[in-house]
Design brief:
- By secondary structure, the protein is an all-alpha fold.
- The protein has one domain: Up-down Bundle (Growth Hormone, Chain: A), CATH 1.20.1250.
- It is globular.
- The two termini are 34 Å apart.
Length: 449
């Protein structure tokens, strides 16, 4: 396999990006890294809730990961445009892997505390801050223009697949350390193994996360170094702010990414899933893994449908309808006490959210010139992280204020879902350009780049 089609034979169009060895390495690196990060995420939120029994602390998990992205946005985006994106991506994944290793070592030594976990997650947030813009911008240079759309589709699918398998695997790994699993092993005559694993679920999960992220970093470093780019302008405060200026000028893009920001900020439920798994649905850590995986299942099914039946008209209206449905399904999940209904609501929530993601990312890819791509992606990373991590903080803090356990969790989720519906209506009024957007090829936008 090479970085070009030497034999002139064309593979099926749906696999066009895989003709290029660099993209194959990048694709595998993304899969392994995202899988490891998802395992780590599930383990952390379950572990910190087990230590504290506090929704506030599960909400802080999101806040401490968001702050580095917000504080470093000018630096990370400029770095992705000025320096080697492959090197930044690889070093960022190595730093994330080191955080997983630190979690495993601290847990194994018995020194782990909630404060130490949050401190390690700050460093993990720094790694993610640099990884996002570099990773998003690198893929452009790995395939020729005619294969770029196919590469983006596979890149998104890889991420979604890892967000399904990773949380489920994380929940199962946590379950290996549960007393019930030890008793089951004892019944099979493996009492010694059960005793060895008992209580070590988080440690097992953290070690697994480290292994997969370390492998992801090695794959990134195996990508052939791209040709040396022409000299770039020296970083100044003015060109560091170019990503913000570009987004502000493109009102359709501004409306799309801010809509996603505030809708998910209001409708975020991740921080409260440990409470639902343990106190409302009685599913345990394995069930937490499936609750985390459920939105990804809905998302990847929707991604496959959109690949076969792409949005060709009325994209703006479709986006607003899906955001409103996102809020509705959040309310259903919040009020449900039946496991299958809760999982179904999360699957549907993930499905409609994926439509919003596809529209937003398509707009960004079409209208962003390469010379500012890293800075624009850095800003977008802050918006996406704000919606997810600050959404966790909003949910955890609100639940903590209302009451402990299910008493606070249920109203926090329901109010957030209603808030997402209100955001959809408000943004439809504030951004008529986005509401009226019909096509995703840039032809109905006044000044596409």
């Amino acid at each position: 396999m090479t970085d070009s089609t030497a034999d002139g034979a064309s593979p099926p169009a749906r696999f066009a990006a895989f003709r290029h060895r660099s993209f194959v390495l990048y694709f595998l690196a993304r899969v392994f890294t995202t899988f490891g990060a998802q395992v780590l995420s599930v383990a952390v939120i379950w572990h910190i809730y087990a230590l504290t029994k506090s929704a506030l602390f599960t909400g802080l998990v999101g806040l401490v990961q968001f702050l580095p992205l917000a504080l470093l946005v000018l630096v990370t985006g400029t770095a992705a445009d000025q320096f080697g994106r492959r090197m930044i991506m690889g070093l960022s994944i190595l730093l994330a892997a080191a955080c997983a290793a630190a979690m495993a070592l601290l847990t194994g030594s018995g020194m782990i505390t909630a404060i130490l976990m949050l401190s390690v997650l700050v460093v993990f947030g720094v790694a993610r801050a640099f990884l996002g813009p570099a990773s998003s911008s690198l893929v452009v240079s790995l395939v020729p223009q005619e294969d770029f759309a196919n590469a983006v589709t596979w890149n998104s699918s890889a991420w979604q697949a890892a967000t399904i398998v990773g949380p489920a695997a994380g929940g199962l790994l946590l379950g290996l350390g549960e007393p019930a699993f030890a008793r089951w092993l004892g019944g099979l005559g493996q009492a010694d193994l059960g005793a060895f694993l008992n209580g070590h679920g988080p440690e097992i999960a953290y070690t697994t996360a480290f292994a997969f992220m370390a492998l992801g970093a090695l794959l990134v470093f195996a990508i052939p170094k791209p040709p040396k780019a022409p000299p770039k302008e020296r970083p100044t405060l003015s060109n560091m702010l170019e990503g913000f200026r570009f987004i502000w000028k493109q009102k359709v893009i501004l409306g799309a990414i801010s809509l996603d920001l505030f809708a998910v900020l209001m409708g975020g439920v991740i921080a409260l899933l440990p409470i639902y798994a343990e106190e409302i649905l009685f599913l345990g850590p394995e069930g937490l893994g499936w609750l985390r995986a459920a939105p990804g299942i809905g998302a990847i099914i929707t991604a496959a449908l959109l690949a076969a039946f792409p949005i060709r008209d009325n994209a703006g209206r479709i986006m607003f309808i899906c955001v409103a449905l996102f809020g509705l399904f959040t309310v259903v999940f919040g009020m449900s006490t039946i496991a299958w209904l809760s999982i179904l609501a999360l699957v549907l929530l993930g499905a409609v959210d994926m439509v919003s993601v596809v529209i937003r990312e398509t707009l960004l890819q079409l209208w962003t010139p390469d010379e500012v791509r890293g800075r624009v992606n850095a800003v977008n990373s802050v918006f996406v992280s704000a919606s997810n991590e600050l959404g966790e903080f909003r949910a955890g803090t609100m639940a903590h204020v209302i009451g402990a356990g299910a008493v606070g969790a249920v109203p926090a989720v329901v109010v957030g879902g209603i808030g997402a519906i209100v955001v959809a209506g408000g943004w439809a009024w504030m951004f008529p350009q986005l509401r009226k957007a019909r096509r995703l090829d840039g032809k109905d936008v006044e000044h596409p780049v």
